[in-house]
Amino acid sequence: MSASQVAASPxxxxxxxxxxxxxxxxxxxxxxxxxxxxxxxGERVGIVxxxxxxxxxxxRAIAGLLPTSPLVRVTGSIRFAGREMVGAPAEDWNAIxxxxxxxxxxxxLTFLNPVMRVGRQVAESIPLSRVGGDRRAQLTAxxxxxxxxxxxxxxxxxxxxxxxxxxxxRQRVLIAxxxxxxxxxxxxxxxxxxxxxxxxxxxxxxxxRTVADLGTAMILISHDLAVVAGMTDRVYVMYAGRxxxxxxxxxxxxxxxxxxxxxxxxxxxxxxxxxxxxxxxxPSLRRELNAEADHAS
Amino acid sequence: MTTPTPKPDAVLGTxxxxxxxxxxxxxxxxxxxxxxxxxxxxxxxxxxxxxxPVLVFFVLLSAFGPLFVGDPITAGFPKLLPPGSxxxxxxxxxxxxDFLARVINGGRVSLLVxxxxxxxxxxxxxxxxxLAGYFGGIIDTVMVKVAEFFQVLPxxxxxLVIAALLGANVVFIxxxxxxxxxxxxxxxxxxxxxxxxxxxxxESAKAAGFRGLRIIxxxxxxxxxxxxxxxxxxxxxxxxxxxxxxSYLGIGDPSRPSWGALLNSAQSYMxxxxxxxxxxxxxxxxxxxxxNMLGDALNDSFNPTVGRVK
Lengths: 297, 310
Known about the structure:
The complex is a heterodimer of chains A (297) and B (310). Chain A has 297 residues and is of the alpha/beta class. Chain A has one domain (3-100, 183-296): Rossmann fold. Chain A has helices spanning 3-8, 55-63, 90-99, 118-123, 135-148, 154-158, 167-180, 197-214, 225-231, 249-254, 259-272, 283-296, and strands spanning 12-22, 28-39, 44-48, 73-80, 83-84, 101-104, 185-189, 217-222, 234-239, 242-248. Chain A has a six-stranded mixed beta sheet, with helices on both faces. A four-stranded antiparallel beta sheet of chain A has the order 2-1-4-5, covered by helices on one side. In chain A, helix 5 packs across helix 7 (167-180) and helix 7 (167-180) runs parallel beside helix 8. The longest helix of chain A has 18 residues, at 197-214. Chain B has one domain (46-72, 95-302): MetI-like (MetI-like fold), CATH 1.10.3720.10. Chain B has twelve helices and no strands. Chain B has helices at 8-12, 25-31, 38-44, 46-68, 99-135, 137-152, 155-166, 170-197, 200-207, 212-248, 259-266, 274-302. In chain B, helix 5 (99-135) packs antiparallel against helix 6. The two termini of chain B are 26 Å apart. At the A-B interface, helix 3, helix 7 and helix 8 of A face helix 2, helix 9 and helix 10 of B.
């Protein structure tokens, strides 16, 4: 591959991604089917869809975090800056995850090591070589990243154990860990689902600002259209493992083309607007959508 | 977080926490003083204050005591002399040997065996159990089979064979006990590691691009330590007791009788020489109790998720 090709390749390019997961001894499910997805440098991309639509599995596949079992089959192509990662050895994945992709997970408590102080967990994302082998500089960097993630009293926070922090603070710590790597891409999988509504918005604001400050690209995976609407440039809508609609966020939200997106938007509006009856996707549409999905595969 | 707060300093004093409505940092400050290290917490516990001196006493007694008492195998004093006399504080045994010297020298052997076996078991158990539990699959299967093999080895027969071939020796006894006792620690480590490996922070570490061995060392093992520490302190007690069993069969080093050996030889003289059973028995009980209590205290102080925060 020539240098110009590498330069021209987008940060992340997923094409024809299929993921088959085992659901029992003899049964399996195509969790992700023919997914094509592109993220360019500094771009923010949303993936929305209901539970079981395959959005999280797509996210995990992109980070190479699906279980390594012969029953889990990933086919298609995942390229980071032109480099093919499907079937790549574990060592290559580790390098990608160490240097390029920062992940923010759903539940902030279980994703922090309970017996390690928060500061050290952030420090693990800052290689000593980057700060000239200086522990003191590393510590300063830890404090800076914690502050950047919107935390106050950073020295105290760095000295705490995760269970001593509130849910919102823990999620900010996860953000700090993710940005401390100075990754090219942040992959946030339902980053605020485990938080209560008031804290949610503040954490999202922080994430929004941090990503903007650093110019990092981001994939935001959420079931919540409202969350995705405010924070992304482009959005992919997933249903039953495939992408049913994609476009700029504005375009998709203003003028949805696919019936599923329309129904999804209608159900959101029915919650946010007063005097509207709560709308849920009718079974007839479900049947149609499922038939369509099966037909296409 | 730029929530305006009423000036708390004016009301509550200079170090009062800034309270923000949604994310109470105040709670954090109350809970834990970062200056207070885990060791300090450990040493401030009442159990520690009682049992550290007990353990230190026995360790010092075993280390330096033999320098100040007579030879434990020199016989010739009056037989079965009760304790209390000036020359023989703890009396003499059935062959007329000074019992204080025997108890103090016995402690050396017993403590050496107990602690070395426990440390060896913990080390082997952490390595084998950690690898098996984290990696699973074929590594797990192999490790479990190896552990099972060592667990079914008849320790006493093995000890007899080795003693017959190589001679009775404390080092051999330690090795034999460690070889047969590590699987029980490894099983605990494996089960806990399997559980921990499914948790978010291990996935988080994988997502951070760390390799398996690194994740085992920094995320898995620290989180499996609580039950392992308790199991290890139990091992100290069990090793001391099993060593007495071996001594009973004559596998112990006869020139260096352990507490277990003293206890066993006391069986025949329960009626005429109660002190022969009482003192070594008391020593074993106190040491095993102290080690177990300290293991618990250690666990409480070093595991930040246990207790302390109320």
